Amino acid sequence: MKKQFNNIRVCAENMGSKRGFNIYLDFSGQREYLMSHRHNGLLFEMLKDGIYLNEMKRMKRGSRSGKVRACSVKTKNSVEHLLLVIDDYLIDREAS
Questions:
Q1: pTM score, two decimals?
Q2: I need a labelling partner for 95 at 20 to 30 A (CA). Which of 32, 64, 78, 89 fits?
């Protein structure tokens, strides 16, 4: 994707009594639903307070700073899948 999105945060919100959580993209205060995800404690812990998209992409490349530490293969794979979904969403959003 050529266009850089520096102000996009990825946030997670617990679904309450259901097992899992919802993932949202926050475009400078404008929140948009992205997807639901089954329970994954490490991923939820990383996303519950919000994380910038650029920071997540650095995690994929192997950065081990701050809260984006790759704790397990499962978490790394979940983050890689989430980044693919976000990229697809942003491409569709630009096209419309």
A1: 0.80
A2: 78
**Per-residue pLDDT reduced to its tens digit, 26-78:** 998 899 999 999 888 889 999 999 999 998 888 765 555 555 454 677 788 88
What lies within 8 Å, CB to CB, of 79 at 6+ separation is 43, 46, 56, 59, 60, 70
> Is the distance from CB of 71 to CB of 79 less than 8 angstroms?
no
Q: What are phi and psi of 20, to 5 degrees?
A: 130, -170
- Tell me 3's DSSP state: S
CA distance 40 to 21: 9
Own/partner pairs, 71-76, CB within 8 angstroms, 24+ separation: 71/42, 72/42, 74/40, 74/42, 75/40, 75/42, 75/43, 75/46
CA 56 to CA 44: how far, in whole Å?
13
